[in-house]
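Run log // design_07
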């Protein structure tokens, strides 16, 4: 699923209208899809007290359709339209819908009347993606009113929360129903935090108009891309059918990190997992999960299918030399994390001909690309894309809305995750899940990586919902991983 900028969305609208689907039809479709969402989410609508806040543009026109549909089909306890501008300022399709609203006899006003403050549902149709810069004037006043004047209300925004801009105030939506495709502001931080729960509603724009050939377009990591990996296994399968992962790490005093990665690889479905670690840490590995095998660093990759290198590896010169050698020469796909990332030089290229998946957090990314953490966070997409393209690696830049960048310039944004995962060992678990899925699905490597990142975040969400944000630990992620995976099974 593509993530569109405002300009890309306007172009898709234009092409659709030129192809023969009138804007008035698209507006009607938008209103109907949102009413369907309201019917499903906030039933019974007959008992709702509704205020629909409408601007004078196309977003407001969508709101007028919603008001008319609610009025004629559901007859809620009360319904008022709150206008941002006098009706005579509506133009085009919005003006046509205003005529239909007036014919329907729906109450409206230019200001908030006392009984409106008891609303249980506020539909935010004030401003859409056409906003340039922060909201001001009358629009800003209404945004503040929607955030503070309706204490009993669920707020549902049409397409985007009004005023959504990194430097301005916006509606704090409970739900956002975005039209045709997700928008950049709804997916990337910090503005994504204001959108509430996001739903994408089709409105009749042909799919080919929502997809660009340029690699500069962003993609949303959607379960539909990788659900095929989780079909039932063949009845004749055996442990050798699902790959052998080698986790290399666990210097003295850090065996737990390598052990967690190994456990995650097994829990995600790898047939065999060996953890190569300091001999004094092997008891830690087998105590955590006796199914894990152990070996020494010097044993090499051998006949294993996937390498995960870095968890607890340490910063000793010998360890860093091993990491650099394996990155350059291991003839298997490799997931590179933690201390193995720190061992790589800022000019390191992937010349091995094999897949290399790097999983840095922002600090590690800043060391790899030579900039500061603030610069990385200010342009997470651009930083990951440039590094992946220049170094021939897949980059999984961890953090809120994890960014997965491919060497060809394609970028995928992961929608799952929670602040509860900001805990020691969470990255080690991700490394193991990626390695475990790569071992099982060597011919669908991109899908395996995207699925691993999605599952990691979803397990965190499930765990936080049950245990709380403060109490979740990295090992809890493995307890909730099966439930996250079950949601992907067809």
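design_07 sequence
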């Amino acid at each position: 699923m593509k993530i569109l900028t405002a300009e890309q969305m306007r172009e898709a609208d234009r092409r659709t209208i030129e192809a023969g689907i009138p804007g008035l039809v698209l507006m009607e479709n938008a209103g109907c899809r949102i009413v369907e969402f309201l019917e499903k989410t906030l039933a019974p609508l007959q008992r709702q007290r509704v205020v629909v806040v409408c601007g004078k543009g196309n977003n407001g026109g969508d709101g007028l359709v919603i008001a008319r549909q609610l009025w004629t089909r559901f007859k809620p306890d009360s319904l008022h339209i709150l206008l941002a501008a006098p009706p005579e300022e509506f133009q085009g399709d919005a003006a046509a819908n205003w005529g239909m609203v007036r014919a329907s006899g729906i109450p409206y006003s230019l200001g908030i009347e006392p009984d409106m403050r008891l609303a249980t549902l506020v539909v935010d149709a004030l401003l859409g993606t056409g906003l340039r810069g922060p909201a001001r004037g009358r629009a800003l006043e209404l945004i503040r009113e929607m955030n503070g004047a309706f204490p009993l209300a669920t707020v549902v925004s049409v397409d985007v929360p009004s005023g959504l801009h990194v430097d301005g105030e916006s509606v704090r939506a409970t739900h956002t129903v975005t039209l045709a495709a997700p928008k950049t502001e709804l997916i990337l931080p910090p503005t994504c935090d204001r959108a509430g729960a996001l739903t994408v509603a089709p409105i009749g724009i042909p799919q080919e108009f929502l997809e660009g050939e340029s690699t500069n377009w962003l993609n949303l990591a959607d379960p539909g891309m990788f659900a095929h990996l989780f079909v039932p296994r063949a009845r004749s399968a055996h442990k050798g059918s699902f790959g052998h992962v080698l986790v290399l790490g666990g210097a003295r005093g850090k065996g737990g990190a390598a052990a967690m990665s190994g456990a995650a690889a097994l829990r995600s479905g790898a047939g065999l997992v060996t953890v190569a670690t300091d001999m004094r840490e092997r008891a830690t590995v087998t105590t955590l999960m006796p199914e894990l095998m152990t070996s020494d660093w010097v044993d090499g990759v051998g006949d294993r299918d996937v390498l995960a290198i870095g968890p607890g590896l340490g910063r000793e010169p010998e360890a860093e030399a091993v990491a650099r050698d394996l990155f350059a020469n291991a003839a298997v796909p490799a997931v590179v994390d933690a201390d193995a990332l720190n061992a790589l030089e800022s000019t390191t290229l992937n010349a091995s001909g094999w897949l290399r998946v790097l999983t840095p957090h922002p600090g590690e990314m800043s060391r790899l690309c030579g900039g500061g953490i603030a610069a990385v966070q200010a342009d997470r997409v651009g930083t990951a894309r440039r590094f992946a393209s220049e170094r021939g690696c897949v980059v999984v830049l961890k953090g809120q809305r994890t960014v997965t960048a491919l060497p060809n310039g394609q970028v995928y944004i992961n929608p799952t995750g929670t602040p509860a995962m900001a805990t020691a060992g969470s990255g080690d678990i991700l490394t193991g899940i990626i390695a475990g899925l790569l071992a099982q699905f060597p011919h669908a490597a991109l899908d395996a990586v995207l699925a691993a990142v999605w599952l990691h975040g979803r397990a965190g969400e499930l765990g936080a919902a049950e245990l709380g944000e403060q109490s979740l630990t990295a090992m809890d992620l493995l307890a909730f991983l099966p439930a996250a995976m079950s949601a992907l099974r067809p």
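The two ends are 19 Å apart (CA to CA).
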